[in-house]
C-alpha cells in the first residue's frame, strides 16, 4: 500500500495517490471519481476544515459565498464545515459532541496532518466497504484539540468507479481523564444554499421501505431509530435530490450508515441557507465512554453522488455493495429456490410431518427446504409455542429423538424433481433472544438487557440478550456452531423479533453492536459455505451493516404481492435486488386476505435474489400446481440477472396503476421487464411501457411481440401492453439483443 504524507500547509507541491483519485495541493484536498468531485480545504486562520464542493466534476477552488456579517451569527456559523464541533460560534448541530471529565462539552479540533494511501483499511470491530489499491484510495486527516489532548482522525475513501465516498472517524483520548462521546455523525457536510428535497425509507412491521419525500426547509429535517436496531420505522439512509430530479435525470446525493444499531439522520438549513447533512449514531443511545489511551471508532457512512437521477444513485449503490461491501461467498452466486415450513406447519411439527413436507418440496422441483421455528427446547421449556425455549438451541427430543442428524440426512436423500440434485436443508434460529421460560434464562438471568430494578418488559414473550457481554457472545457462537456441526446444514435464517427496551446505559447499544458483529464475523468466517439470511420480524434490520456479512435479508413479513411490490421497489432505492429475499405465499393472504393469482405473486418475488415459497404444497390448487414448473423455469433464467445485472424502476406503484421494473444482464444482451396492472380499469388506457438502458441502434426480439424492434423504439415509443379488465395482473417480458 503506497502512502503519501503531508503536514500543516506545507508548501504547494501537488501529491497524487496511486490511482490519482485524491490530490492534496497545499491546504486544498480533492477527491475525484468518474462523475463526482469532493473538495475541501484547511482554513489558514482557524485550522478548521472547510467544505468547498460535493457534486459533479469540478477542478478549481472558487471563493466562498459572501455572507453579510452582523448580529449573533458570525465566525464559524457562516462557514461550511467538514467536522463541526461544539462551541466557538457555530450554532448548528455538531458532528462531534464530547463531554469532558469536568463536565464541559466544548471542543476545538485543528488540522494537524494528512496521509493518502491506495486501498482502504478495515474499521476495527465494525463492518465497512473494502477494496484493493486499484479500487479505492483513502485520505486520512488528523486533527487535534490541544486544550483537551484529544485527537480526531478523519477517513475519506473514494471508489471512483461508483462515485462513492466512504467516511468515518476515530477519537483518541490522549488525556488523563475519561471522556464521553455524546454525538457522533460519521458523515457531515455543509452544502450550499440549494433547493433540495429529502427522501427517506419509512414504515413499520409489514409496511417497510415506503418512499417519503419532503422539502429541506429552514430548521432541522430528519428522523432517527431508537429501537436499538436500524428498525422497520426508519432505514439508516437518506437522499437529497433537486426538485426536478427523476429516476433517470437530475442530481441526487445518497447517504447510508453501515451500521445496525440506533441512528440519527438530520439536515439543518440555517438562516444563510447552507444545509448541514449529518448521519451517524443516535445521541440518545450514545454517551460512549473513552478512557485515557483508548480510541472510539465511528461507523462508516457511504455517500454516492449521481447526476443521472435517483436510479443512477441506486445502481451505483447496488454495484458497490455487491462488490465492495457484502463479503459472503454467496453474494455473487445464484441462490437455491426454497420452501419455508412456517406458513405450512407453524409450531405443529414433528419429524414425520417435516419429512412429508420436505418430500413434497422436492417433488415440486424446489431445491432447499427450510425448517422454521419450533424445533428446539426440552420439557418444561419445549418450543411448542412462542412462550418458551428461545436460548436453548438443542433439538426437542419429543420431535427429534435422535437429534437433527438423521432427520437432515432423510431430507438430503430426497431427489429434486426434474433434476439429479438432492434436496438441501436449512434451519431457523433467533440467537440474540431468550424466553424467560428457558434453561438459559433460568441459569443466567443477568445475561439480558435490563436496567437495575426496572421491570424487564417483554415483546413476543422474549427478552434481548446483552451481546455487549463477551460471555454471551461466546455462548451464541458455540450454540450456533453446535447446530451447524450437528448436521448437513446449508442455510440459516437468523431472526430477531423485538427491539431493545431497557438498557443499562445509553452506550449499551453501541457495545451490543460491536458484540453482534464479533459473533457474526466469527460464524461467517468459520462457516463460509453456509448461506445466512437475515431477518428481523421482516425488514427490521435490512441494513448495510449486516449486508457486509450476510448476502440476503428477508424483506418483509408481509407477503401480499401487491404490498410487497411497494416494499421491494422502496428497498431497491438503496439496496441491491440480489439482497432481497421474497417468497410466494398461500392465498388468501394471511395479512390482507387478498386473493392474487400465483403468476402475479411469482412475478413480484422473482425480482429478488432469494426466491421461494411459504405455503403447504398439498393445499395448492390444480391451477397453481400446474404453474410452478413454469415459475421455476423463469427463476432459472432470471436469477443470474438479479444477482449481477442492473435494476431500473420504470414506473413506481406510488405513482401509477401500471408499475414496472427492468433488469439488464451484465453483458447487456438480455433484459427482463416486470410489468403490472394493479386495479382493473376501463378507461383511461394504460400508458405505453418505455424500457431503459437498451442499445438504441440494436434490434431486440421478445416474448411480447413478433419480429424485432430497435432499442430506440422500445425506449422512446414503448410497448402498449394488453391488459384484461381484472385486478392484479402481471407480465414477464424478455428482450434479447440481436
TrEMBL record:
Residues 73-289 form the Glycosyl hydrolase family 36 N-terminal domain. This is Alpha-galactosidase. Belongs to the glycosyl hydrolase. The keyword Amino-acid biosynthesis does not apply. The active site is at 495 (nucleophile), 557 (proton donor). Residues 1-24 form the signal peptide. It catalyses: Hydrolysis of terminal, non-reducing alpha-D-galactose residues in alpha-D-galactosides, including galactose oligosaccharides, galactomannans and galactolipids. InterPro entries: Aldolase_TIM, Alpga-gal_N_sf, Alpha-glycosidase_related, GH, Glyco_hydro_36, Glyco_hydro_36_C, Glyco_hydro_36_N, Glyco_hydro_b. GO terms for molecular function: alpha-galactosidase activity. The keyword Cytoplasm does not apply.
